[in-house]
Amino acid sequence: MIPFASLRGTTPAKAAPPAARSGGAPQVLSSAGDFEGSAEERKLLCLLSDGRLLIAQGQESNPHVLSYRARLQKMARQCTVEVVDIETIAALYNNGAGEQGGRRHEHSMMQVTAKELLNRACRERASDIHIRVRRCSTETYFRIHNDLLRVGSQTSEYGERLLATLYGAMTSVSDSSYKPTERQDASIADRDKLPPQLYGVRIATAPTSEGTLMVLRLLYNDAGDTVDLRPLGFSELHACQMQRLKEQPTGMNIISGPTGSGKSTTLQRVLSGALQEAGNKLHVLTVEDPVEYPIDGAVQTSVTNAGSEEERSRLFSAAISNAMRLDPDTIMIGEMRDKASAQSALRASMTGHQVWTTVHANSAIAIVDRLLDLGLPMNMVADHLVVTGLISQRLVKLLCPHCKVRLGAAPDTLAAPLLARVRQACGAAFDQVCVAGPGCPECREQGTAGRSVVAEVITPDARFFDLVRSGAKGQALDYWRRELGGQTLLEHALAKVAAGLVDPRMAEKVVGHLAFEASRAERHLNVVEALHAG
To answer: Where is composition skewed (Low complexity) in this entry (predicted)?
Structure first.
C-alpha cells in the first residue's frame, strides 16, 4: 500500500491507501493519454482517476507543476491537491505500470530511438530535423548547409509514436500535451536528454493535409567557443563596425535576416565579447522566447508557456519592461515581434540602456520600414542617438577547398547568362572564381564545407537619417556607401565569389544577380578575405 499526505500540514501525513478510499486502486492518469505529463512533470506530480493531484513536498511553486496545473484548468479537469513525499510519486508510477507495462517499455525504446536520431543529426551537423508523418509513411529529413536531405523512411505508426515521444516525454517547456491536430511549440533543454554537442532543441509542430509535420531546430553549444565575428564570415570592416557598436553605452542595434541566418549566434558572440572586454562587470540581461544559446556572464530569462499568441506577446512585452527595472547595462531582446515589444525596446534604448535585438527585414535599411510597420514613430526610429546600428545578414555555402574547381577551367559549368554576369561583376578577379567540385571524402561528397555570413552593417549618422526621413532612401544608401564606407550584402557576397570561396550559383540564391550594381561593387573586389583563403 502507498501512503498519501494531506495538504493541511506542512509535513506530509500518512493517508488512507487508495484501495481503502474507493474500493479499488485509482488509475494514474498523468502517465499516458490526454493528461500525460512530461518527464519532468512526472518526477514532481501524479494525477489520479479519483480526482487527486499529488504534488511532491516543496514543489508546489515549481514551474513544471504550475504549468501542468494550468493545463488541467484549461482542460476543465477538476482536482484536489495533496502534498506527498517525492518517493510516493515515484512508487505510484512504478507500481501503476500494470497493464501499461508494455506501452512504457515501447515508450522507453522510442526515447532511445529519438536520442539516436538527434545524435545522427549532430554527426551530420544538421541545423534542423524535419519529420513528416503521412497517411502511409513517415519521412525524415536533415537540413545540412541549407539543403533539405532525405535520410530515412518508416511507417506512419512509427512516426506518430516518435512525435509523441519527442514532444511528450523529452520536452521540458511546452504549451500542452502533444496534440497532432494542433499547432504547438516546445523545447528540449534537459542536457541529459541531449547529445553533448547540443545546448537545446526547439520544436514546432503543425497538422498537414496528410498527417503531421514536426521540425526540430538544433542549437549547438559551440557558439561560444570564440567571440571573434570574423570566423563566422564577417569582414574586417564589419568586425570594426560591430566593435564600435559594442562600445557605445546606449542605443539600439538591430540585426535582421530570415530564420536560420545566424542572428542568434551573432548576438551570442557580440554579448559574450562585451562581457569579456568589461571583465564581467556589465549586467547583461536577455529576454528570449525561449533561451537559445548560453551567454557566459549574462542573466538570461525566458518567456514560455503562454496559452496563445496574444498572451505570449503580452508576456514578452511585460518581460522587457520588467528588465528595465532590474538595473541592466545591456538588454538583449530575442525578437521584436509586435508593436508592444518594439515600443518597449525603443523605450529601453532611450532611457540609458544599450539594446541588441532582431527583426525580420530584407536589408539593413529595410529595418526602418519594418519598425514603422510595427507602429513606431519615424522621428524616434530615424534618430541616430536612439537607433545606432542596422545590421542584415545571410548565410552562403562555402566551397570545399579540397575539390572546388576554377571556373576558368570549366566555363560550361555555368549557364551563359550567369557566366556573363560573373565576368562583368568580377572583372580582373574572374580567374580566381571557383565552382563546386564533384565532392570528396573531406566534404562527404557534398562539394561544400560549411556556411559563411554575408552581411551589411549601417552605423547611421544624422545626415543618413535626415535623408531617410525625407523619403530619399536611395540617396541615403549612396551616402552610406560613399561617405560612410558601407558595403552591401551583394558586395560582400561578390567579394567572396571573387576570392574563390563561394560558388556564383550559391551566391545568387542568397543575394540575387551578381551583376546588379556591379560598378559600385568593383571597389570591394580587392578585399582579401584571409580568414577563408586557406
So the answer is: 12-26
